[in-house]
Every structure is written in C-alpha cells, then in structure tokens.
C-alpha cells in the first residue's frame, strides 16, 4: 500500500501504537498513557497541556492566519479484556487490552500533529486526546474542561475491521447509536417450589418481561429505524427448591433517532409495570441515560468526504454498509458544535476478530491513512471557514 506519508513519521506512529498497546490503561486511569503521549509531543516540540479532566491532553497549533479553530480528537482508554492475539507487543497488563483500537487513534493524532507542524494549516487547530470513551463520559468531562472553547468544528474517526485498509467510511446522518441502560427489579413473593400457588414467582415475571419487551421494537418502532433492547443480566433465586421473590434485570436500549430513543424510554417502564400487574408483582424501573446518537450533519460531512477524496480514490470512500448501534461518546461534542465522525478501514490480514474481544487487532497501515485524513480535514475545514468568513 502506498502510504504517501514520510517513512519516519509512519515508523514513529507504529512504535507509539505498539508501546501503548503493551501498556493499556482503563477509563480514568490513563496516567501512564498521558505521559507517553506527552513525551511524543515534547519530542515534536509541540507545547501542550496535560491533566485535563484528569488524564486528557490538549495542544493548540497556530494556523497561517488567525481564524476559527478546528478540533481533531482521539480517545486513549483500553478495555477490561484479556488479550489473546499472541502479538509480540501484546498487552503486559493482565486483563486489560486495547481491544477497540484507541492505541491506533492516539498514534494517528500524534502523526497528524507532526504533519501539521511541518506545514501549518490555514486556521488554528486544536488536538484533543480524550480519556474514558469506553466509560461514555470522557467527552463530557473534556468539554467541561474547556476542550471546545473557541472551536468551530470538530472531527474524529474510528478504526473498523469490517473494511480493508485504505477505505474511508464517511456517512451523512446517523453513525452510532445511543447507549441508555436500565435496571428493573420485579418483586414477588418467595415460597416453596412445590407450592407455587402460595407465592409470586419473580423469575416467571422477569421472563415474561424479557419476551414481551421485544414487542416495543417489532410493533412500536418504525421498521426503518434501527433499534434494539437487550437484557444482558438477570439475577434471581437462592436455591433450586425456592421460588424467587425478587428478580433484577439489567440491559441496554439503543437507537439512532432521538424520537425512538424517547419512545423506548417510556415503553420500558410501561411494559414492566403491566407485566408485573398481570402476575401480582411489583416493578421498580431505573433508567440511566447514556451517550446520545452520533449524527453527522450534512455540511461538516461534506468537508470530511472532500478530505477523504483528497487522499484516496473515489472507490475507497463510501458510506457505512449497515446501521451501527454501538455507542461513541464523540456524540457529546456534536451536541455542542458541528462536526463529523468517520471510520478508517483497518481489517488485518488473515482471520479478524471483532472489537471488544481478546483477539482484536488492526492493520497498521491504517495509522498512515488516519493521520493523513486528520491532517487533510483540518486544512479543508479551515479553508472552508475562511471562505465563509466564519
């Protein structure tokens, strides 16, 4: 693959990515990661601030002229997963690995910083290395720390092993789903397994809810709107011969449309209470809002696509093939200002494993593609804002 990037820049990105991969840190614990990024930026002579929101980093680059600022963002945290790749640079931290490619994102943005320093962009650029994307609240914390102050547009991207390296996936509209969660407690009456008529079986109630709630998707949501309700945990019972008096369910509901999100938030309590009443039980419902849907607006998406077409053949720039209900806290930035979020093809050679699994890996050529696109979109967006007189 023609990386069209200086070999020394690419080698430094690979070395940083592998170093971060060996030393992963969970959300809000990225202290060592922050120092490794800081060391790389210091080597480039780039002034930066560390410790934003605890473990975040921010660097500002001057443009050729004053003007509106463009922000570029990468995430830095890892996941509580045991690595099973067998890579020579596999995680050295038991039970923790970069199973979502954030080591790659971090390295790409350092590479983009080097490209932007070598040839200043038209307008100022802010580089953001954000912690705790996996926790879903890192972006909010960075916003509160001032990461978007003075910023007009923000861009970012994510590696995707569903597409080969060199492809850039640019989609107008919904890109990621919301990530709301729920906890529902059904309270019945404990009793002897041989005398169910004198008890209220909370497991039966919970089981009815698990099947009934799917009607909220199949019969209450427009089939053209992707949505899902998943019960991930069900805890109940104390012995084989005792009817459970309480059952606790926890799960998530996801969609790409704000109206569907609101409908599901009202449907879950309604269905839980109806099922409980049907079985002479009680229901307590707790909803925890997560990240909102990530929705690319048309204007910034056009800039993201133009930048992609500047560095890749038209055949390599395309929209998402299927709806994606995975969460991405970049959505919090887009609640504040306009921007766009894309995907970088990163399919490794041979058999590939999904993100958030112990076998996940990326093709390292994606580092060059990501750095080039981040560099290019800062220039395209800067020229656009100057032309618009923003």
Please give a structural write-up.
By secondary structure, the chain is α/β, with parallel strands linked by helices. The protein folds into two domains: 7-175 and 293-388, Aminopeptidase (3-Layer(aba) Sandwich), CATH 3.40.630; 180-288, Alpha-Beta Plaits (2-Layer Sandwich). The chain has helices spanning 7-22, 31-43, 102-118, 138-144, 202-212, 215-218, 258-278, 298-311, 331-336, 365-388, and strands at 49-52, 56-61, 69-75, 125-130, 151-160, 168-169, 173-176, 180-187, 191-192, 227-236, 242-243, 246-255, 282-288, 294-296, 317-318, 338-345. The strands form four sheets. It has an eight-stranded mixed β-sheet with strand order 1-2-4-3-5-16-6-15, with helices on both faces. A four-stranded antiparallel β-sheet has the order 10-12-8-13, covered by helices on one side. Strand 1 (49-52) and strand 2 form a beta hairpin. Helix 1 packs antiparallel against helix 3, helix 3 crosses helix 10 and helix 8 (298-311) crosses helix 10. It is elongated. 50% of the residues are buried.
């Amino acid at each position: 693959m023609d990386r069209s990037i200086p070999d020394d820049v690419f080698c430094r990105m690979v070395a940083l990515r592998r170093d971060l991969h060996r030393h992963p840190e969970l959300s809000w614990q990225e202290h060592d990661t922050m120092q490794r990024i800081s060391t790389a930026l210091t080597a480039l002579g780039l002034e930066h601030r560390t410790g934003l929101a605890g473990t975040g980093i921010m660097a500002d680059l001057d443009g050729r002229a004053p003007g509106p600022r463009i922000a570029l963002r990468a995430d830095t945290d890892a996941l509580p997963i045991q690595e099973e790749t067998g890579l020579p640079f596999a995680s050295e931290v038991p039970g923790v690995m970069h199973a979502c490619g954030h080591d790659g994102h971090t390295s790409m943005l350092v590479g983009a910083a080097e490209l932007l320093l070598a040839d200043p962009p038209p307008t100022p650029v802010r580089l953001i290395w954000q912690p705790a994307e996996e926790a879903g609240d890192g972006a909010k914390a960075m916003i509160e720390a001032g990461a978007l102050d003075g910023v007009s547009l923000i861009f970012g991207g994510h590696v995707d092993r569903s597409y080969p390296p060199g492809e850039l996936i640019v989609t107008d509209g919904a890109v990621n789903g919301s990530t709301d969660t729920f906890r529902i407690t059904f309270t019945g009456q404990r009793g002897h397994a041989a005398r169910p008529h004198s008890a209220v079986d909370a497991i039966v109630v919970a089981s009815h809810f698990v099947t009934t709630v799917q009607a909220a998707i199949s019969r209450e949501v427009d089939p053209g709107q992707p949505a899902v309700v998943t019960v991930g945990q069900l805890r109940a019972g104390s012995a084989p011969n005792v009817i459970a008096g309480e059952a606790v369910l926890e799960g998530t509901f996801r969609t790409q449309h704000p109206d569907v999100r609101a409908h599901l938030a009202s449907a879950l309590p309604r269905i839980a209470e109806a099922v409980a009443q049907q079985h002479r039980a009680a229901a307590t419902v707790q909803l925890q809002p997560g990240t909102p849907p990530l929705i690319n607006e048309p204007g910034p998406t056009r800039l993201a696509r133009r930048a992609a077409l500047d560095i890749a053949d038209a055949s390599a720039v395309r929209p998402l093939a299927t709806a994606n209900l995975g969460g991405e806290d970049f959505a919090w930035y887009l609640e504040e200002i306009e921007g766009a979020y894309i995907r970088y093809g990163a399919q490794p050679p041979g058999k590939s494993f999904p993100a958030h699994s112990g076998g996940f890996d990326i093709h390292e050529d994606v580092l060059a593609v990501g750095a080039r696109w981040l560099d290019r979109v800062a220039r395209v967006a800067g020229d656009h804002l100057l032309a618009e007189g923003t």
